[in-house]
Amino acid sequence: MSGVGKGVATSSIAALLKARGFRVTVLKIDPYINVDAGTMNPVEHGEVFVTADGVECDQDIGNYERFLDQDVTSINYMTTGLVYRTVIERERNLEYGGRSVEVVPDIPYEVIRRIRRATREARADFTLIEIGGTVGEYQNLLFLEAARMMHLTDSKNVLFALVSYLPCPAMIGEMKTKPTQHAVRILNSAGIQPDIIIARSEEGLDEPRRRKIATFCNVGPDAIISAPDIKTSIYEIPLNFEREGLAAIILHKFNMRERYADLKLWEKLVRRIRNPKGVVRIGIVGKYFETGKFVLADSYISVIEAIKHAAWEHNLTADIEWLNSEDYEKNLSRVNELIKYDGLVVPGGFGSRGVEGKINVIKFARENNIPFLGLCYGMQLATVEFARNVVGLTDAHTTEVKRDAKHPIIDVMEEQKINLARKDFGATMRLGDYKCNLIRGTKAYAAYGRCASVNERHRHRYEFNNNYRGQLEKAGLTVAGVNSEKDLVEIIELPKHKFFVATQFHPEFRSRPHSPHPLFLSFIKAAKT
Prior knowledge:
By secondary structure, the chain is α/β, with parallel strands linked by helices. It has 19 helices and 22 strands.
């Protein structure tokens, strides 16, 4: 089942192996024809995560980084589209020696080549590969074939784990194993027998169900891992897997000796999460929440996790509420409701929908001294709001929304306009790590521990228009960080405000549970004091 927790399970296993002193790397395989996740709708796909080297990828890569506390690079992510494109380009370059290039075995071979390359580059003792989607989907067959081929040629070094959901229908009142039995049989039809089954359910797995799965799925009872819903936090899952002996089972199956697991950081984190000393109420103002009758928090998962990381560091729990930006442009009086929040966040996004609502929220936060953190589009709209309502440039806007804006406070760089004209949208973003030089005496400078410069991740194509920089600074806006190479504004803030900081980059991508991002730490501190 999609969303059952394969990414978190993979991340947790990786964390347990790393805690034992092993070098670990993790790969995600997405069964999309898309070359990367950059053009996918967040409501359909969830957040687009960006690596340090600039690849737009699945949100699971963010989980890998957060659990492992290490960067994951572009080689660790592949899609069906990327694999096919690579094979076709190699064929065009005569790298197949003129022979017929076929879907099987050449596509699986390319998948295997990428896995082995990622292992070499990370010098990994263990490489974990998560295949996205679900067992039995047509688009996953080639990746399962690659997995089967790897096991065929190197069975002593390849294990399979199946993450499967065991429902507890309310009208029955009993955990059912039949869906897992069917999943294993479908996996068997692809030539793969799972070595480990991670049994996801609302409740913990009992012994009768464990024995039943073992009997019908051909897996030893000790290799069936109970993985119930964890109410507190996903960061408790590694400790749950450790109690189940999962890492020890993996090492045993590889005929490796067990090692001491240093889980002190995880234990300390869970204690903090479980024993907060207060609550901080944060509103996130966005437009990618609703999908039919349901709310999709995955659209902003890195922002949500970064807020939580910072709150836990301050011994607080974050009460996060989703606020639809469109509500604040249809009914202006609703903006007054925002006074109940300790802090407001306007995250990244694209397009015109909900923009005026976000600007109204930013204005309210500025005028009422409510701690505010703007991220990417949030920074751009904060600049537009200041230009309109403080400087008096009432027609100020971003050309992303209004191409003929009289005062284009936010505009696309000249070098990108040619690509946009050609509709070459994949080449028009500033992606990945760029250096930001911090200005002494600013809140941002203090938040980063008075560092001269930092590297932060980007995902945007529009920039602060320097033609208006002097005018806005004269009116009280502080430019707190710049990219000196291109003279681009990276951070703005209001010095007289309790906390009003906005960044062109995405600091949330660098936040980790054991090392929260400095800007989020400062934001939460201001929100609670």
